[in-house]
Amino acid sequence: MTELKAQLKADLTTAMKGRDELSTATLRMLLTAVSTEEVSGSSARELTDDEVLKVIGREAKKRREAAEAFGSAGRAEQAARELAEETVLNRYLPRQLADAELATLVTEAVRESGATEARQMGQVMKLLTPKVAGRADGKRLSDEVRRQLS
Question: Which residue has the higher pLDDT, 36 or 96?
């Protein structure tokens, strides 16, 4: 079992003992998503810590999007619950890049790739994606690249 998955299980046990309903439900959902990912595909396999982080990021994004949808539908209570779940998930994700840090990385990648126009955005993204893995949302990243290339 990977270190991160073991940490999630230990935190679930702690949340259950502490009767923390929000953390318990969120961690159960997350461990289910990890297990589902492990058995998807042609054969079952153990996920690495990086793959578990991707699952956590994907689940956090789902919560963020659901909160927006509930908020725009006037369902504030459900939106608040989704945001609270996202907060629990964010505890396991790496620190997100600040806007200034992201802009600096994009500037370096644009210079390194030699891109000068928006059509060359793919080249910049190819260089940048491994550098920011898990530390910035893909939409935030592409928006910054597009802004600097236009």
Answer: 36
User: What's the half-sphere exposure (Cβ side, CA atoms, 13 Å) at 128?
Assistant: 32
pTM to 2 decimal places: 0.78
DSSP 10: H
Q: Rounded to whole angstroms, how far apart are CA atoms 63 and 91?
A: 14
How many whole angstroms from its chain centre is CA 104? 21
The radius of gyration computed from the CA coordinates of the chain, to the nearest angstrom, equals 18
Per-residue model confidence as pLDDT tens digits over 132-148: 877 888 888 889 888 88
- First CA to last CA distance, the chain: 46
In angstroms, the CA 78 to CA 32 distance is 21
- Name 26's Cβ contacts closer than 8 Å, sequence gap at least 6: 85, 88, 89
